[in-house]
Amino acid sequence: MHDDCSFRRMAGVVAVASLPLAVGNLLAMLGAVNFNLNGISEPIVLLHAGAGAAGLWRWSMILDIAGYYLPIVPLLFLLRNLLRPQSPNWVDLSTACLLAYCFVGAIGGAILATALPTLISDYASATAAHQANLATVFTGYTDAIYRGLWNLLEEFLAGVGWIGIGLALRSGQRRLGLVTLTLGAACLLDSLGTALNIDAISTVGLVIYLVLAPLWACWLGVALLRNSPAFTRRSGVHPENEHSTDRVPTGSASVG
Fold first, then answer.
1. Which residues contact 128 (CB under 8 A, 6 or more apart)?
2. Are 221 and 21 in contact (CB under 8 A)?
3. What is the pTM of this model?
4. Residue 37 near residue 203 (C-beta atoms within 8 A)
5. What residues contact 95, with CB distance under 8 A and at least 6 apart?
6. DSSP for residue 126
7. What are phi and psi of 241, to 5 degrees?
8. Which residues are 241's β-sheet partners?
9. Tens digit of pLDDT for each residue in 122-177?
């Protein structure tokens, strides 16, 4: 029981900490392209930003991994335990999709953190002929990660997962459930726009996701640290006495 309580606190702290890390990711990423918003949907802007962008970009990807992906893994295990009695198969599928989203996204960030800075630095000092070759390699990396792993695959998995979790949450906590559904719909919109090769559609979904995902994680993290009944009833731990072994009656699951 003590392990459950310590895991819950750890998950809450990590989830809350993910918000400033995600904000740092966005600031570093925009700083790398001199706050040119076109850089969100057109990675080639980064290549022309100069050698000084290489270091900022590397840190933006490290913060991306630490802000958007890995911190929600503990939350997913807690949500699975909470929501699984309602619909075991659907909740398991949703959790699996979100875990896949976390690891696919983190792998993509790790590749971009290590591959692109070298290309950016080399491009700044290369001859025109060599720049053309570097631009081709750069585009290959960014298309594979941005449009392939991230916007197409990762966002589809995240959309399915968050919609499934949102539907399960909605009966107990309407507001959080609706926010989760909105987040899932934004991810599917991004994936659909990428599949159709329509940047206007995918960019709308991407921007909503970038803003809402860390807020969602922080919301759940705060609920955990406040010992919300949603995270104590099923484990049988009283919020006022985490070390007690007394069981409390299992109530309806809710978050908030």
1. none
2. no
3. 0.86
4. no
5. 76, 77, 79, 80, 161, 165
6. S
7. -150, 85
8. 238
9. 999 999 999 999 999 999 999 999 999 999 999 999 999 999 999 999 887 889 99
Which tokens sit at 123?
């491009």
Strand spans (E) along the chain: none
**Amino acid symbol at 127:** T
150: helix, strand or coil: helix
Distance of CA 124 to the CA centre of its chain: 31
Q: Show the tokens assigned to 140.
A: 């290959």
- Per-residue buried b or exposed e for 149-179, using 16+ beta carbons within 10 Å of the residue's own CB: bbbbbbbbbbbbbbbbbbbbbeebbeebbeb
Task: Report pLDDT digits (tens) over 94-113.
Answer: 999 999 999 999 999 999 99
What token pair was written down for 149? 């792993």
**Which two structure tokens, joined as six digits, stand for 40?**
């969100």
251: which 2 tokens?
């109530």
Q: Which two tokens stand for residue 31?
A: 């700083």
> For residues 181 and 136, is the Cβ–Cβ distance under 8 A?
no
215 and 225 Cβ atoms separated by less than 8 Å? no
Euclidean distance between CA atoms 24 and 26, whole angstroms: 5
237-241 average pLDDT score:
37
3 state SS of 238: strand
Angle value at C-alpha 77, between 254 and 23, nearest 5 degrees:
85
Could you tell me if 252 and 17 are in contact, meaning their C-beta atoms sit under 8 angstroms apart? no
The rounded distance, in Å, linking the Cα atoms of 181 and 138 is: 35
Question: Contacts from 200-207 at CB under 8 Å and sequence distance 24+?
Answer: 202/41, 202/151, 203/40, 203/41, 205/155, 206/40, 206/41, 206/151, 206/155, 207/40
